[in-house]
Predict the structure.
Amino acid sequence: MSTRWTTADLPDLTGRTIVVTGATAGLGEVTTRELARAGAHVVMAVRNEQKAADILRGMGPTKGQIEIRHLDVADLGSVREFGWNWSDPIDVLINNAGIMQVPLAHTRDGLELQMATNYFGAFALTRTLLPHITDRVVSLSSQLHRTGHVRLDDLAWKTRKYDDLAAYADSKLAVVLFSSELQRRLTAVNSPVRSITAHPGIARTSLASHAGGLTGRINYLGPLLNTVEQGALPTLYAATQDVPGGSYVGPDGLASIKGYPTIRRPSRTARNENLARDLWDETNKVVGADLAFAL
């Protein structure tokens, strides 16, 4: 049952360090602001540092400190540099960065851009930072993961006919599978760290403002959708509340499109442990030995 949890229910986060990727727009910007207002030391891990600085100047006073560090999650080299140069304890890593329905493009690592940004980058960043994480990893997915498929033989979309929405859905399914598999492996080694998945429902952000079809018109559906502030609530809830590892947190409304954060259930495919294990193994091969998990 929903408790109608809001930012007013955030605990005092003084003394906690939280890394937020993709913090220069939408959900990431709101997440950063609210965590800092609650006292956290928030690290904005972003590709565009100038944009982050502009946002920070307009954010107003916060109880906690906000720091900007460069990170391009779609570039495994950037992930390596960010992660291997990190030395301080991290309470929470929030894998928020994401893109949606972009034209077919491949990164310098040969990865399809949406999979690289939404999934591979989160996987690799978690791998590099995990030795420093003391509390939890929160990874952002989408209800569109329910339409996704994982093609282990073509994760980079090199042999299939490209479909931008399908690529997005696939990347978000991969996130849920990764997040749940990470929790199983953490549990197996008696780690206190939790892995949690969150999704915003459908929020009125700029994520798909360039896209055609329904996803390109989401900002016009008004009362049917979450505001950006509401859409950030599941992330904030997953990052700060006593949520069991392996949880899937999303809005409590019909089809989890809108509402207040609660623990939901991902798709049957997302709960397939064999598929999650196979994806984990294949991802280890893709990202390379130095970014592969030993768990």
Remarks:
- Residues 164-188 form the longest helix (25 residues).
